[in-house]
Design a protein that fits this description.
Layout: H1 7-10, H2 15-18, H3 25-41, E1 46-48, E2 59-63, H4 70-80, E3 85-90, H5 99-105, E4 109-111, H6 120-130, E5 134-136, H7 157-165, E6 169-175, H8 177-180, E7 197-200, H9 216-238, E8 246-248, E9 253-255
Helix pairs in contact: 3-4, 6-7, 7-9
């Protein structure tokens, strides 16, 4: 789908026209409803770069994470640009009434953060990629702790999945969700609808690390490159320049980029 199609036009019941990728009835029914709910908190979003998404085949989408609302907004962007998103999401969400059933029916992927099952999600994500699906993984692992809400240090899961699968990695920078639904009380919640921008970038070049999924140094370098690409898209979405260095939550300070892997 061309990004030149006006966003408002897509919201008039035209999801079936712009997204012909096979999926189940739950997913196809859920997305228009989610769109209507999202507009309670946000203005009609500004979308850029939708044409950079692969029209078919596997892809790993890597957004920055600033609010509990942004998965809804990123998922909306992907669905209305022709691809059904399969998020790696916290396992406890799947235990919630109604929401858990919807997540399972929509083929989202639970992530156990602790214990022996912590790596199972990457295996399931790899199988989804083999089936030609789009996977969404947040390299930061949680909503950013950076005091200015810039992307912080990455976990290595996205890089390991990319190097093992060979699937293209597509960076997304998004801004505005944390004004609609502020995390950790960083600002007062208001009913004023927030302006939202989502900016999709070109695939991250990881060719020099190909086959290095078991190479710790290659995985770390690929993780930094992925976060650099995400940060560049966030700069475009925010219309601002990111600070030098990247927030390391364990140290509670910014560190040089080369060290910015959790």
């Amino acid at each position: 789908m061309s990004s030149s199609v006006p966003v408002k036009r897509l919201y008039r019941g035209e999801l079936g026209r712009v997204n012909v990728e096979p999926t189940n009835r739950t997913f196809r029914t859920l997305v228009p409803g989610v769109h209507r709910l999202a507009r309670i908190l946000t203005q009609t979003p500004t979308w850029r770069g939708g044409e950079r998404l692969p029209a078919t085949g596997p892809a790993i989408i890597v957004p920055n994470h600033i609010s509990s609302l942004d998965p809804v907004l990123v998922g909306e962007f992907l669905a209305y640009n022709g691809r059904w998103p399969h998020f790696l999401a916290r396992a406890n969400l799947f235990d919630l009434p109604v929401l858990g059933a919807l997540l399972r029916d929509a083929e989202q992927i639970p992530v156990q953060r602790d214990g022996r099952q912590a790596g199972d999600a990457l295996g399931e994500a790899a199988r989804s990629l083999q089936a030609g699906q789009v996977i969404v993984i947040y390299p930061e692992g949680t909503i950013t702790f950076d005091p200015d809400e810039w992307p912080m240090a990455a976990h290595t899961g996205a890089a390991r999945l990319a190097l093992a699968s060979g699937a293209p990695v597509i960076p997304i920078g998004q801004w505005g969700a944390s004004f609609a639904l502020p995390p950790r009380k960083i600002r007062p919640f208001t009913l004023r609808r927030a302006a939202v921008t989502i900016d999709c970038g070109a695939p991250v070049d990881l060719s020099e690390f190909a086959g290095g999924a078991d190479d710790r140094h290659a995985v770390r370098a690929a993780s930094v490159r992925i976060m650099d690409a995400i940060t560049a898209q966030v700069e475009l979405a925010r219309g601002a320049k990111a600070p030098t260095g990247r927030w390391q939550p364990r140290l509670k300070r910014r560190v040089p980029r080369i060290e910015a892997v959790s």
